[in-house]
Amino acid sequence: MVNKVVHSTGSDEWATPRSLFTWLRLNRNWVPQLDVACNVVNRVCDSFLLGNALEQSWSMREKENVWCNPPYSKSKEFVEKAHEEFLTNPELDIYMLLPVRTGRSYWQELLDVTYSVEFIQGRLYFGGSKASAPFDSCLVRFKKELENVCLRAPVIEQVIIPLEFRR
After folding, report:
1. How far apart are CA 4 and CA 19, in angstroms?
2. Domains in the chain, ordered, with CATH?
3. What burial letters (b/e) apply to 6-34, b meaning 16+ CB within 10 Å?
4. Which H helix or E strand runs over 141?
């Protein structure tokens, strides 16, 4: 019997730890410009989409850094949408924060369409929570400059993000 209290908050929304963006800026020279999976309270950018992001364009500008921390029950759909948006506008630089669930059927499909997967060592603290998430996380990236490097096999790294950037 699975204990739902241990494995779930009962919510599908996990607010992005703001300090993760400090880490991305310092270590990847990347600053988000458009948040595509948020609500007014947990958005991380001045520009954000409201409503169903799966039915909207993610290209507000020709070149844009797009952030996506989707509802995790729709990870597959959001990965497909990110890939579609990237193919439509290869100037997009899309980072996604996803749970690591290698047993899920979409996971192998994800590896076929992304260009970088960075596994985060240690668990994140979402939305100011005092406890870490009950799952591991990774950063998935779609970026044109990575396309030629990967040749259908993503760059896979384990990223050690210090605890102060995981809260």
Report:
1. 28
2. 12-165 (3.40.50)
3. eeeeeeebbbbbebbbebbeeeeebebbb
4. strand 137-142
pLDDT (tens digit per residue) in 62-104: 678 999 999 988 998 999 999 999 989 988 999 999 998 888 8
3 state DSSP class of 122 = coil
Give the torsion sign (CA, 31, 61, 139, 10).
positive
**Residue found under tokens 């996990």:** 14
How would you classify the pairing of strands 137-142 and 116-121? antiparallel
CA distances from 61 to 68, 91, 99, 146 (A): 16, 9, 28, 21
pTM assigned to the model: 0.82
What SS3 state is found at 134?
Answer: coil
Given a contact cutoff of 8 angstroms between Cβ atoms, the answer to whether 123 and 135 are in contact is yes
Supply angle C-alpha 96, 99, 100, rounded to 5. Answer: 110
Which amino acid is present at 46? Answer: D
* pLDDT tens-digit readout, 98-115: 998 888 877 777 777 777
